[in-house]
Amino acid sequence: MSTNTRTRRHTAPFDLAQLDWVPLREGLSFKPITFYPDGSGWQLLLRLEPGTVIPPHRHTGEVHGFNLSGSRFLINTKETVGPGTYVYEPPGNADTWKQIGDEPCIVHIEVKGRIEYLDDRGTIVRTVDAKSSQKTYLDWCAETGKTPIPALALPFEA
């Protein structure tokens, strides 16, 4: 039997509705769903408040996004994505998008690889990956006195 290193080890189920939104910056927060044990990717719910913009960024791996509620506008392609819409972004894709409408936009996202945030010249100014995303979650838990969900606090494989 082969083992898929991206698959999370068996853990107890947890209710995402009971997990608070972890703030990333004004208008942007997330709920982690899983971090792949080998650090190759992660899944999350991303919440954008009205008017929030995701700055230019590039993906080193595939990204799968499914809008659960609210709408977003993909600035590069001038497409509007509403509830129930799936978006695939191939490795190397660079884009920027923003929340539109009066209600928050909530997207289930699976990220493989890194997200590289870019300045106006296309220079990488910041990166986010599974390990840094988990650290953000665990730091937030420590700062707020919340007990981390055990499945989200598991160490990465060496």
Structure description:
Residues 15-106 form the ChrR-like cupin domain. Keywords: Dioxygenase, Oxidoreductase. It holds the Pfam family Cupin_7. This protein has one helix and twelve strands, in the order ββββββββββββα. It has 158 residues and is mainly beta. It has a single domain, classed as Jelly Rolls. The protein has a six-stranded antiparallel β-sheet, covered by helices on one side. It has a six-stranded antiparallel β-sheet with strand order 7-6-9-4-11-12. The chain starts with 21 loop residues before the first strand and ends in a 14-residue tail after the last helix.
Number of beta strands: 12
Largest sheet: 6 strands, antiparallel
Uncertain stretches: 1-5
How much beta, percentage-wise?
35-45%
Work out the radius of gyration: 16 Å
Helix content: under 10%
Number of domains: 1
Q: Any idea what the CATH superfamily is called?
A: Jelly Rolls
Domain ChrR-like cupin: 15-106
Keywords: Dioxygenase, Oxidoreductase
Protein name: 2,4'-dihydroxyacetophenone dioxygenase family protein
GO molecular function, one term: dioxygenase activity
